[in-house]
Amino acid sequence: MPAITPDHAAAYLRHTVGTEPIREIARADGVHASTVLRRIRSIEDARDCPIWSQIWDDISREYAAPKTDAPRGFDLASLLCYLGTSVCEVSAALATASIGRKSTVSILVGVETSRSPVLQNGDQVATISRAAALGLVLSGAARCKPGQGTVRVARLELTGVVPDVLAGIETPPAVKPAARRIAAESRKRYGPTYGSTLVAQMERSGSMSAAKFDAEHIALVWSMIETAQTDPARFLDAIADLNIGETLPPIFKALIVDGLGFEATEKSLGWPARSCKMIFLIALDLARDRGYAA
Length: 294
Fold this sequence. Notes:
- This protein has helices spanning 6-16, 22-29, 33-46, 50-64, 76-83, 87-98, 130-139, 179-190, 196-204, 215-230, 232-240, 249-257, 262-269, 276-289, and strands spanning 105-110, 115-120, 123-129, 142-144, 153-158.
- By secondary structure, the chain is of the alpha+beta class.
- It folds into 3 domains: 1-46; 50-55 and 69-175, no CATH class; 179-289, no CATH class.
- The chain has a 5-stranded antiparallel sheet, with helices on one face.
- A hairpin with an 8-residue loop joins β4 and β5 (153-158).
- α1 (6-16) crosses α3 (33-46) and α4 (50-64) crosses α5.
- The protein is elongated, with a radius of gyration of 22 Å.
- The chain starts with 5 loop residues before the first helix and ends in a 5-residue tail after the last helix.
């Protein structure tokens, strides 16, 4: 999609969300009605791409009912604000996705997840917020890979372009979490056997699959293991209270309560081979974002 200009964004939002007639918008802007119509259609045509559909759905929802008192403009900074992110966060996301880049970077964006995995050479190296990932597309720093978008998940790639609004923004260096240290401390606290197999598989997954578990994931799993070891019913009730659908709770029961490994869980649930790690990663992100507590 061509770069979004304030004129395009203003025409689209004022007409589709604000229900202003096209002729009134044209009169206020001093242009012909056909010009306004072309601006609106350029965005409507772009919505055929699932990722652009997500972007304009989120922007339109916030524009219709703003949750903050931020100025209601139509420049890129304002659109990012409607999207739930900012110029600084998107700049940091771009820096994170570009660290150590030796090949094409992929960013997975899902409708139901608030975090987006950043993949390099098929391995997850970081996660960024979903809003920041969408902001990368909106700013022109990323795009949806051809043929890689679906209704629920899209795969992004960096364009190699750094928009002017992101250039010069200083971001702090990325800090790699001490996942192994946290895991070691957790084993000392919770015991060496119960759950160790699962955590060991999580630690090894970074170099073996697209699903890479960080320190927060491992600490969360140890907390779940502690609860499930003492009161499995309370743990499963806490998972049910998250309202994460019918597909994801069984993976918590299989891995945390029943103590099955990834391969055994795939067989017991009838899932494709090597799918369990990525699904568990998504499930953990949802549990964390929805305030898991037991």
